[in-house]
Amino acid sequence: MFSHSRASASGLINGAKEAVALITKPRTLASRTLFPSRLANERLASHSHRPYATMNRDDNDPIEAIFRQKRLLRSRIRKELKNMDPVRRSEEDAAIQSIVLNAPWFQSSKSICAYISSPALREVDTSRIVSEILSKPANEGDVQNRKKLYVPRVEDRNSNMRMLRISSVDDLIVNSMDILEPALLDSDGKQHEDVLEASDPVDLFILPGLAFDRCGRRLGRGGGYYDLFLKKYQELTKQRQWKEPLRVALSYSVQIVEEGAIAVTSNDVSVDALASPAGVIPISPAAQERSMG
C-alpha cells in the first residue's frame, strides 16, 4: 500500500475539521474549501458506455485514434480550467453544491458515494456536500435516517479502487499522491465498510471528471479507476437485483462540451445527469424519474 505523511495528514484533517465546524455559519462565495490545496496526481473518473463517437479514424488502429482524441480534449479542458477566473470558480462551486444539497434526489438518498475534491486537480468542490452529510448527527432513536457516505480509496496502479464508508473526517488520511482518502481501519481498529460488501444498495454516485456532454458521455483522466469500479458495481446490482444508483457528475460550465467531442469505448460508463452552475441537466430516464427537470 502507499506510504502516508503523518504531518501532512494532520494539517489537512485539522483544516477539514474546522470547515465542518463552520458548516452552520453563513457562507460567502469566497469561503474556504473543506480540504486545503495539495499537490496531487490525476484522479480517474468514469466515462460513458455509449457506442464509439464519430471521428477521423486512424487507418490502422481505431482505438489509438480514440485515445488520441481523448488526450487532445483533456489538454484543452485542463488549460481552460487553469485559466478559469478564481472568483468565477468560487461562484460556480457555491452554485453547484447548493443545487445538489437542495435537490430532492440528494435529500432522499440514504447511501451515497462521493469524491473528496482536490483543488490541485481543479475539481468541482464537494466540501459542503461532504460536510453536510458528516456534520449532521443522527437524532436519538433515528439512526436509520442518517445518510451513509462512501469515499474512494486507490488500491494500486492497476485501476483498482475501493469505496469505503466514513463517519468523520478523522477517518481520512493522505495517500502517497497527496490526496485525502479513507484509512483501512477506523479509530477503533475496525475495517471500514466496503460498499461492494454492504448489505444495502447505493442510491447516488457523485462523480468528478474532466469533460462531459449532454448525452451522458464523460471524459476522465486516463487511468480507468472509476470505469472499473462502476462496472463492478453494475455487476453487483444485477446479481442482487438492486436498482442501479443515480450517477450525477459535477461540472463547471467550461467542462460541458459539444456532442461528439468525447470519444468513448465499451469500457466507459455514462452518467445520468450533470449538475452545473445553471442547474441540473437530466439525461437518462432514471434522472427524469427522480424529479431532475
TrEMBL record:
Keywords carried by this UniProt record: ATP-binding, Magnesium, Metal-binding, Nucleotide-binding
Cofactors that this protein relies on: Mg(2+)
An annotated GO cellular component: mitochondrion
EC annotation from Swiss-Prot or TrEMBL: 6.3.3.2
Pfam families the record matches: 5-FTHF_cyc-lig
Highest taxon, organism lineage: Eukaryota
One GO molecular-function entry: metal ion binding
GO BP terms, alphabetized: folic acid-containing compound biosynthetic process; tetrahydrofolate interconversion
NCBIfam families named among the record's database cross-references: MTHFS_bact
Family according to the record: Belongs to the 5-formyltetrahydrofolate cyclo-ligase family.
Protein name: 5-formyltetrahydrofolate cyclo-ligase
Protein species of origin: Pyrus ussuriensis x Pyrus communis
